[in-house]
Amino acid sequence: MAENKIIAICQLGGEFETEQDGTLSYKGGDAHAIDIDDQMRFNEFKTEVAEVFSCNVNTMSLKYFLPGNRKTLITISNDKDLKRMIKFHGDSITAEVYIIMEENVEPDVSNMPASRSSRTTLSEAVPQVDAPLDVVEDIVDNTNNPIIPFDASLDVVVNTSHIDVNLDYTRTELPPEISPILPLVDSNDEKHAKAAHQWQNTITGVGQRFSSVHEFREQLRKYAIAHQFAFRYKKNDSHRVTVKCKAEGCPWRIHASRLSTTQLICIKKMNPTHTCEGAAVTTGHQATRSWVAGIIKEKLKIFPNYKPKDIVNDIKVEYGIQLNYFQAWRGKEIAKEQLQGSYKEAYNQLPFLCEKIKETNPGSFATFTTKEDSSFHRLFVSFHASLYGFLQGCRPLLFLDSIPLKSKYQGTLLAATAADGNDGVFPVSFAVVDAETDNNWHWFLLQLKTALSATPCPITFVADKQKGLRESIAEIFKDSYHAYCLRYLTEQLIRDVKGQFSHEVKRLVVEDLYAAAYAPRPEGFQRSIENIKSISLEAYNWIMQSEPQNWANAFFQGARYNHIASNFGELFYSWVSDAHELPITQMVDMIRSKIMELTYTRRADSNLWMTRMTPSMEEKLEKEDLKVRNLQVLLSTGSTCEVRGDTVEVVDMDHWDCTCKGWQLTGLPCCHAIAVISCIGRSPYDYCSRYFTTEMYRVTYSETVHPIPDLDRPAQSDPSQVAVTVTPPPTRRPPGRPTTKKSGSQDVMKRQLQCSRCRGLGHNKSTCKDSL
Question: Which residues of the chain form CATH 3.30.420?
């Protein structure tokens, strides 16, 4: 097979710039061409790049853009990533690779004092403020005490010389990373930082002009940081600024005012002499959160997980300024909003988003609702490629689950995922709602029903029976089957059953419950339930009243292919976890880009398969085939045959049925069926579910999710029409670290050893106590 070869255009030393349409362009730097193919290892490629640019291989990261998408950088970190990049650029001769150099700086905590008590009073944490309005932000940010976030309502009184500002502080949410907030560190003896050198001449003296007051203030701030001194405003308004050194008795002073008939600001007076040694500027007095945001914005664009503690370290090393944790966190929040846009404005762009999804991906569903006060209520999205892939190539099996969002306005994401022919997660649809309620789940299922109106057969849902799902599924999908999620059922059992059971006893009850659920026949179910009865009669009665026909293999009437839990779509939920802090429109678009990448990758991978079945199903079939050698087949003139081994089973070839129930439960011939198939000279492939074939898998991923190029461009409002206004939901992120939704007990969810004799879990046939 011919190798895929491309030329990697490797670039280093430039900078990314954001264009008006939100795309990234790379300006400047050096470029070198390196030949690569799909046989090259990642470490070889990285080493060659390091040699070409004479840089450290341990501090570089490699990134690239997907074809047609210059908004999101993809990281190359292993062999699989490199091969995937080559596949993505298979139709091109070249691929652009960007080398990003990282600085590994170890924080110096040797001189950090112990954290102060969290009971700091307001008078200690926040000073009284009597200052020009323009510098209120500086004062609030730069208190020398450890601080926590506050919302300040400003009561402003204008005087001739200054503005009196009374701050009414009320406690608001803590950023989730703060645990605890770090105290400030004095570091007057720190050497002058290298990055600040470039700002030493931002202020040159009398006669220097600036385009605005804002520009003058920014340049003055940089000048003070470069020269390591703190200043305070004597006058500060829209047309004049007078500043003096903060050190008592120091003569340094500067005055600038507007040139008449222009907006230009000109320095009129300046005494450049300092008699002080600086005013402890290294504690961050001159570093406002806006300044921090401007400094870190470009790096945050490349490294979205840039942590506040790393920001503190980098600012200290680069500029010689010691921030507190909150300054870094707040600066990051401002930078994120500058890069991503306003959380609030994102809700107002939902009408535009829904229209663009339907325009760029015809056949897709995208709709939203608001409450009476125009606040956001619900958003439903399902892409045409997902709907087509599910209806044409996937088993009629859907998993319903939810994940809480940790964004500024919280909310919950509801999702419907399917299983492709290789047992991989296939996203079908999702919704963002203000809260997980019975009503919102009902609405989600109504939208899903509309989107899946073309489905030819009943669907099996694997979902919790709480939150109104039991009633809503039965009402909306009348001919469907509802398999209760065993994970949620187990959690409810542990909550409801009283008694002082030890952890070990609870684990045994859960193991028996899972064994009962997996048991293919009623007698195996009953054995496991009797084990629970011997431990707790209350647990036994609870289980018998929990409608086993909706979760036990022995009684379930639908086809769930041995899937018993609704958290099958964990890959999809991990995408949401990566995007939950983005504004809602960008979160939806990131999910879209992940689905697009998944579709492309799996389609490309499947084109290389040479087998009739998908790889995972081939493997399962081979495992069953290995068991055939110990079986004896007794053929008959009809369609039924007897197969003898550890047990005696009857195989019905016409109905694809075996008394072991393995064939019906999985959709693949069990070992007994394979033994009969071999005897009659047929192929086991002829008796496998069509959903497991490579052909059907390729159909599943045959459609494409298309980009939404104008997402960041606000819709042009038509004056003749009244625009739909959508405001954020009233919920806000509460104080403290957000809770993480548990995916179930690990020892509960772990698959147990299964006995081939009795089909029970937790043992094999050599230790089975049942008689032959």
Answer: 341-485+565-605
Which pLDDT does position 199 carry in this prediction?
A: 80
Q: Torsion-angle region of residue 280: left (phi > 0), alpha (psi -120 to 50) or beta? A: left
Nearest to 462 by CA among 500, 502, 503, 415: 415
Rounded Cα distance between 728 and 730, Å, is: 6
Peptide bond into 175 cis (omega under 30): no
Q: Which two tokens stand for residue 61?
A: 């990261």
- Residue 629 token pair: 């050698």
Give the chain's end-to-end CA distance (angstroms, integer): 52
Give residue-wise pLDDT tens across range 563-577. 998 888 888 888 877
Tokens 């018993």 label which residue?
Answer: 564
- Whether residue 258 contacts residue 202, with contact meaning beta carbons closer than 8 Å, is answered with no
Measure the CA angle with vertex 620, ends 565 and 623; round to 5°: 130
Residues with Cβ within 8 Å of 464's Cβ and at least 6 positions away in sequence, in order, are: 400, 401, 484, 485, 488, 566
Confidence check: pLDDT of 632 > 90: yes
pLDDT for the residue numbered 650: 95
* Coil, strand or helix at 267: strand
User: What strands lie across the sheet with 365-370, from one edge to the other?
Assistant: 365-370, 376-382, 425-433, 412-419, 397-404, 460-463, 481-484
The domain over range 341-485+565-605 is classified in CATH as 3.40.50: no
Where in the chain do CATH 3.10.20.90 domains reside?
A: 5-101
| Residues 319-331 pLDDT 10s | 777 788 888 888 8
Which uninterrupted H or E stretch holds 749?
helix 746-749
Per CATH, is 5-101 categorized as 3.60.15.10?
Answer: no
pLDDT at position 659 is: 94
Structure-token pair, residue 439: 């009503």
Paired tokens of 586: 């960008």
Question: b or e along 173-210 (b: 16 or more beta carbons within 10 Å of the residue's beta carbon)?
Answer: ebbeebeebbebbebeebeebeebeebeebbeeeeeeb
Pair type for strands 648-652 and 640-644: antiparallel
| H helices present in 647-705, as ranges | 662-666, 671-679, 694-700
CB 227 within 8 A of CB 282: no
Q: Tokens representing 337? A: 């909003």
CA atoms of 545 and 548, how far apart (whole Å): 8
Judge contact between 309 and 26, C-beta under 8 A. Answer: no
Residue 119 has pLDDT above 70, yes or no: no
**CB half-sphere exposure, 579, CA atoms < 13 A:** 22
State residue 734's pLDDT score. 54
Which whole-number Å values give the CA distances from 183 to 114, 120, 284, 295, 322, in the listed order? 8, 12, 12, 22, 10
Number of residues in the chain: 772
Q: Which are the contacts of 766, defined by CB distance < 8 A and separation ≥ 6?
A: none
